Amino acid sequence: MVRAGLSTERLTRAGAELADEVGFDRVTVSALARRFDVKVASLYSHLKNSQDLKTRIALFALEELADRVAAALAGRAGKDALAAFADTYRDYAREHPGRYAAAQLRLDAETAAASAGGRHAQMTRAILRGYDLTEPDRTHAVRMLGSVFHGYIGLEMGGGFSHTAVDPQESWSWIVDSLDSLLRNRTAP
């Protein structure tokens, strides 16, 4: 019998909240069952196992973040779009650290293709339309932006910038300005 009020969607959202509270790596079906004060077995009518739960949280986070990025990019171009894109990722990671970590989960090819991950790549490429880049530079730029933004966010969230007097926000702005300059002034080798 399915417990009243429990659904795959509700469990996924609760799992995302749990990830933000305790860390994505600590999310399990058992931990989720404790949250609802139910037996683990009662969740298996909605979830296959902890990996299924983590995959669902990752898909949820990718979709939620893509929606936020799309809203932030609306009507923007060039540096304004680049900054909005970067800031939205950083703000999301600060607000939802567990979900942000979930969005980095490696998905199998079929699941990834059906996820909002493609929207993230499309939006990154849309930003780059504001710069005069052709292939393969556009692909290199997509990879560079992802590396820089995710790398900075990961280091910042791990406390990597807490030991200097320079405000991390100053560095973030400097990086976005530098990336904009690099992209605007990129010439073919």
Automatic annotation (TrEMBL):
<dbReference type="InterPro" id="IPR001647">
    <property type="entry name" value="HTH_TetR"/>
</dbReference>
<keyword id="KW-0804">Transcription</keyword>
<dbReference type="InterPro" id="IPR036271">
    <property type="entry name" value="Tet_transcr_reg_TetR-rel_C_sf"/>
</dbReference>
<keyword id="KW-0238">DNA-binding</keyword>
<dbReference type="InterPro" id="IPR009057">
    <property type="entry name" value="Homeodomain-like_sf"/>
</dbReference>
<dbReference type="InterPro" id="IPR050109">
    <property type="entry name" value="HTH-type_TetR-like_transc_reg"/>
</dbReference>
<dbReference type="Pfam" id="PF00440">
    <property type="entry name" value="TetR_N"/>
</dbReference>
<feature type="DNA-binding region" description="H-T-H motif">
    <location>
        <begin position="28"/>
        <end position="47"/>
    </location>
</feature>
<protein>
    <submittedName>
        <fullName>TetR-like C-terminal domain-containing protein</fullName>
    </submittedName>
</protein>
<keyword id="KW-0805">Transcription regulation</keyword>
<feature type="domain" description="HTH tetR-type">
    <location>
        <begin position="5"/>
        <end position="65"/>
    </location>
</feature>
<dbReference type="Pfam" id="PF13305">
    <property type="entry name" value="TetR_C_33"/>
</dbReference>
<dbReference type="InterPro" id="IPR025996">
    <property type="entry name" value="MT1864/Rv1816-like_C"/>
</dbReference>
